[in-house]
Each structure stands twice: as structure tokens, then as C-alpha cells.
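stage 2 :: seqdesign
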């Protein structure tokens, strides 16, 4: 799984002109799932995200987690995170999981974050979504469960 994390002051997702999910102070998660992903990837990422210290403490140092600041998540499915641009100018999405694999994994990921006590808003898997955000910092981090640095 690849997740593009953005620390936000606020974020929302609209589908057909209606707000489907919105948060204040937290993380916007663009979630890309590939065929090789499993529950192990989900569990690792959920723990990593809830412990990720990217929020400022009272001295302005990024030293607090989303748990520490009482923040929320907005999780958006994003198959294009698995785009390959090695050949030509048209990206290939061959590594992105098909919906029959990706939807249950995406739902399990959201459930894992909620099970850890977090508020999680979502878009709708496969929908045409308009995502708005105010990236705070800006802070943007790419996490790949297959490349655990």
C-alpha cells in the first residue's frame, strides 16, 4: 500500500456536489492499494500513521502524533499512486489492485484506524471525487508498506 499523507488544517471530499466527508486538523490520506497488499500491510500502516509525529508541540517542533492532538483522518482511495511512468507518456496502472481486491482492503484499512480510536471520514471508492484541503506546513509524506524505511 502506498499512502500520501498530508497534514491539514481542514480537508473535505465532495461527490456529485455534496460533501461526503470533512475534517479539521488531521491527516488527509490518499490510499493506493496494489494486488500484493494484505492485512499485514494494513496493520503496519495503521500503527505507523497513528504514531507518526508530524504535528507541532508548544515549541513548534514536529513531535506530536494525531493521537496526541486529537486529530482526524480523511481517507481517499487513490489508485493512481501506483502509476508507472517508466515507458512513454501514458502512465500504466498495472500494479493497482482491481476493485474486487482493493475495496475490501480499503474498508479494512479504514476499520483498522477506527479500531485504534480515531475518527475517519472517507470518500466513496471508485467515485469521481473533488478533494479540497489546506495543507498545514506544508507537510506531505509518502509511505509505502513495501518499502519500510
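stage 2 :: out
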Amino acid at each position: 500500500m502506498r499512502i500520501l499523507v498530508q497534514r491539514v488544517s481542514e480537508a473535505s471530499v465532495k461527490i456529485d456536489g455534496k460533501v461526503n466527508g470533512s475534517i479539521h486538523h488531521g491527516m488527509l490520506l490518499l490510499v493506493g492499494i496494489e494486488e500484493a497488499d494484505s492485512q499485514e500491510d494494513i496493520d503496519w500502516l495503521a500503527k505507523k500513521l497513528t504514531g507518526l509525529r508530524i504535528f507541532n508541540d508548544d515549541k513548534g517542533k514536529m513531535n506530536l502524533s494525531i493521537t496526541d492532538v486529537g486529530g482526524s483522518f480523511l481517507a481517499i482511495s487513490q489508485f493512481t499512486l501506483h502509476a508507472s511512468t517508466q515507458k512513454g507518456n501514458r502512465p500504466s496502472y498495472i500494479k493497482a489492485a482491481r476493485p474486487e481486491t482493493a475495496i475490501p482492503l480499503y474498508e479494512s484499512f479504514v476499520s483498522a484506524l477506527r479500531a485504534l480510536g480515531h475518527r475517519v471520514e472517507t470518500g466513496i471508492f471508485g467515485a469521481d471525487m473533488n478533494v479540497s484541503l489546506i495543507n498545514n506546513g506544508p507537510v506531505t509524506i509518502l509511505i509505502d508498506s513495501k518499502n519500510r524505511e
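stage 3 :: structure notes
- The chain has a mean pLDDT of 96.
- The radius of gyration is 15 Å.
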